[in-house]
Give the backbone structure.
Amino acid sequence: MNYKKFFELAKSKGIEASELYSAKKYSLSFELFHSEVSSYSTSETFSMSARGIYNDKFGVVRTEKVDAKTPEHLVDEIISNAKVIEKADKALLFKGSDKYQKRNLYNKDIPAISIDQKMKNLFEIEAKLKKADPRIVEIEGVQYSEDAIEVNLVNSYGLNLKSKSNYYVYAASVVVKQGEEVKTGYKVLLSNDPKELDIDKFVDQVVENATSKLGGTQCDSKKYPVILNPKTAASFLDPYLESASAEEVQKHSSLFIGKLNQQVASKKVTILEQPLLKNCFFRYFDDEGVATVNKKIVEKGILKTYLHNLETAQREGTTTTGNGYRGGSKIGVGFVNPSIKPGRKSEADLLAKIKTGVYISSVAGLHAGLNPQSGNFSLQAEGFMIRDGKLAEPLSLITVAGNLLDLFMNVREVANNAELQLSGISAPSLLIKNLAISGK
Amino acid sequence: MIGKSLAIDVLNAGLVTGADFAEIYLEQNDSSFLSLENGKTESSLSSTTYGAGIRLLNKLQSVYGYTNDISRKGLMNLATSLAKSFQGERLITVEKINKVRVKNAHVYERPLSEVSREEKIALMKEAHEVISSYDKRIVRIQCSFMNNRKVVTIFNSDGKQFADFKERGRMAFVAIASENGKIETSFEGPGATAGMEFFTAKISVRDTAKRVAELAIKMLTAAECPSGKMPVVIGNGFGGVVFHEACGHSLEATAVAKKLSVFSDSLGKQIASPLVTAIDDGTIANGWGSNNIDDEGNPTQRNVLIKDGICTSFLVDSFNGRRMNAKANGACRRESYKYEPTSRMSNTFIAAGNSTHEEIIAATKLGLYAASMGGGSVNPATGEFNFSVSEAYIIRDGKIAEPVRGATLIGSGADILMKIDMVGNNLQRAQGMCGSVSGSIPADVGQPTIRVSEILVGGRGGVLK
């Protein structure tokens, strides 16, 4: 599309300032089932999002249909949409930060590896899974996918920012059976460095994830000291950090209202946001074009900052923290590469502190069973009993219930085993004073 | 979009290496989203998705690609690159394409794509007023109005062309109540494949808004739900989400064909209590999950999945049907051209039984009444599920007693189906979005009031006494 034509047309129709955000995406994926390629998929798409300020209000429009009429369509929709907006905030577009820590995180090695080689890796994973354990009765699927995205943010103030990134994923899932008991296990590897694939290690992790669940029982319903593994700790960190959003605070839906510079977690907990960390989630500008910065959100249990975009910052007369990210129909508040700072002790050290307790290895149903506004949760979980400082029998179909704020206030120990999850969140194992578990 | 002659060229380019079936799916989806935050219009977005997906099948293999460059060059490139996945000789050549007549089952008195933003906003403001005047403890109210018009054209190597359009609309109301540091939220989201008349005449937006307000306040003052195994009465309407998640997904060919479902070998066998008959019906006029044709062109059907406890049918798409030796039954769906289609639910519900709602409550001495449900999820291989309950009460001596909050239901689908021991006569459907491999699609869930003799309930209120 002719960007210049859009900006000129917008100006001539009374749009004070305007912005175009385009995204070009490429994807490739394939899957093996019973030693055959059961699906193969490839795509190339282009989408464009335009925002414009008309009578101090934002009009927003998105389209994937790009032709000669597109500039006119975008301008007309910006005006029609802006006309019905009633909120008091004055719409703002960003003129640019003084400095950007630009870095190219696009790894040419990913597309450079032949499709044949990537297929061979899948066949090797499948063959090794087949031989790995007699209790594996089915390999549900072995998948590879890669994605690349190129974004370009341009506005009528002359800001022009580009970024390009890519990553790949290997995933495998197996069904194991012992007697009448059926369990599934899986492993997903996400990275932008092809050297990180270690097939034997990957296979071991799939098998371990599935077989360790066999023999699962339910424990007595009561409060237990709990260890959350890195994945589960990350699952809880995501909704907890929603409360750090200034937007949620301003709209009375945060657990952190009035808690700036106060204690929101135990002294053992430090939470960072590191958008400039060199991994596949790296971002050097947010979706409003503001340069991002690494920061401490919670330091030794004390809430150090709320997260702002241009609009939430304007409401409080402060400056944006570079956390304006697209969500749904507007720019909301988001975070990139959040993490709980690892401690010094190993997970084994944490286990050793518990005589009788529960180790949680995964929780399900977060979208429905956890209310980020009230912090209350009641979730399906699985894991192990902890007896005399060691993992004992597996537990399945248990529930864990509590409140997010209480959970973080009750962190007794933080382990050193941080793991980056698919969600982009990194956390180590946490020892929680106690949580309500129901089983039998 | 594209003409027959280009379609024939693209299909033939895809078939060159021996694929036995080729299909082009073209789509333009224009949608509008309006939202109100505390009574003021906060956002208004118009959005267009536009593109094509090409699918090639070769026995039990499928290849899929999509693009939004639907020029001759763009489509030919995509078909040619997908064809490289196979190494055979051409089996089929498409010579001509005939248009198949698609019958429209839905009436749109006032299509939402022609209703002004201002009129939709006025209706949301009415709902906002009802909620905000209900109780001072309601601190935040969100209302939204989404509608879309989707125009679809499908060409396939059987020489067929299908063209269809659909318009859906959904309103959503969220009330957030707060007192003494406690926060509770409640939600309702009515929708249909229909015009503005659905919101102004078919349902009462004011009544829906009032229910949202009432529930938020009721849950704010409720005690924590007790935990443990207990009899659970699940209310009608959205209560059907339990069947949808815990059983419906396991009856989709997506899981059944590869024998990855607990019900893979269950056809003709008893999988539920004899009181249970369950149906997936994609033909319901103006239904939220209805379609005239599915996303591979087959007319939608009313499929009886379970009859008196016996598994009678799966939901089958043509590709997975190959592995199962079963015929497709109009259940192939996808969110958009960005997804390869597969078997999915449409409007799925447990049929009405004989008991009244009152009889079911009266027959329960001590248990939980899950009046309305939140969302949940399930593992189709094991059937293990979890659901949050958004409105719940303890049943004591056959009467609905105190409200409780924070309840979760946990169990396995196969187990729960057998434990349904009472089925009510008050069938109702409710709207939701169902997420799975082929994306997020509109789907109705539904059921009458049912009772399950025992479910594990999770909560923070200790043991039920």
